[in-house]
Amino acid sequence: MSSSGTADFFYKEAQRLGYVARSAFKLLQIQKQYKLIKPGSSVLDLGCAPGAWLQVACQSLGPLKSGGVVVGVDLKKVKVPSTHCDSRVSTVCADVMNLPKHDLLNLSPQKKGFSVLLSDMCPLVSGITTRDAALSMELGMRALDLALGGAKLPNEPLEDVQPEDQPKNEDDVGILQTGGHLIVKLLESEDTKELIKICKPLFRKSSWLRPKATRSNSREIYLICQDLH
C-alpha cells in the first residue's frame, strides 16, 4: 500500500465498508457520475480480481428482485466476495485474450450479450513505461474487440471483398448490446488518444476519467463510453 494520504484513506474506507480492495471507489465514482449500471443490467467484468468491482456492480443492480447479473472473468480463480454480492454474481477463470466470443455470449442472459462491459484489466507492470503502455493498449483493444466485434474496429481490412459480400462470423459480432456502456482502464500514453477516436463515432458519448481513488503515481485512466449506437 502506498504511504500517501489518499491511498491510506481509500484503503481504510474499503476495509471499513467491507470492500475487498480500494479499487471499489473507482467504480463507485464512475457510477455516481454516469449511472451506467442500472437495476436489471447484465454486467461483464473483465479482469475482476480481487472482486471489488463485482461488489459495486452487484450493489448497483439494486435489490435481488430487480434482477440482473454480474459475470466476472479473470486469469486467477476469483471467489465471489461474501459482502455486497448475492446469487446474481458469478466468476469464470479464463484468459480473456484467448476466450472465444461465443463462450462469453453464452454467459449472458438469453445469450443476447451484456448491457455493461467493464474492463479493469492491467498488465504486469515492468516499470518500462513504453512496454507497459503497449501491453495495456493491447488489453484495451481486446476489450473493444469483444464489446464491438471485429467488423466495427479499424485496421482489419477485408481484401478485395465488399462488406456486404463477406459472410458474417462470430468475430464480426460484439457482446455489448445496442445502447450498452463500456468502461476500459488504460495506462495513459500517446496511443490512448487513438482509442477514443475509435469509440467516439460508435457511442453517443466517449470521455476520459481519472478517479479520485487512483494512486498519485499511477498513469491509470478510464475510457467511459456511453450508449452504443
UniProtKB/TrEMBL annotation:
A Gene Ontology molecular function term of the record: rRNA (uridine-2'-O-)-methyltransferase activity
TM stretches of this protein: none
Highest rank taxon of the organism: Eukaryota
Assigned protein family: Belongs to the class I-like SAM-binding methyltransferase superfamily. RNA methyltransferase RlmE family.
Upper lineage: Eukaryota, Viridiplantae, Streptophyta, Embryophyta, Tracheophyta
Catalytic residues, chain numbering: 185
Protein's UniProt keywords contain Transferase: yes
Keyword list, A-Z: Methyltransferase, rRNA processing, S-adenosyl-L-methionine, Transferase
Database matches in InterPro entries: RNA_methyltr_RlmE (IPR050082), RNA_MeTrfase_FtsJ_dom (IPR002877), rRNA-MeTfrase_E (IPR015507), SAM-dependent_MTases_sf (IPR029063)
Protein name listed in UniProt: rRNA methyltransferase 2, mitochondrial
Gene3D superfamilies: Vaccinia Virus protein VP39
The keyword Ribosomal protein is assigned to this record: no
Domain Ribosomal RNA methyltransferase FtsJ: 19-227
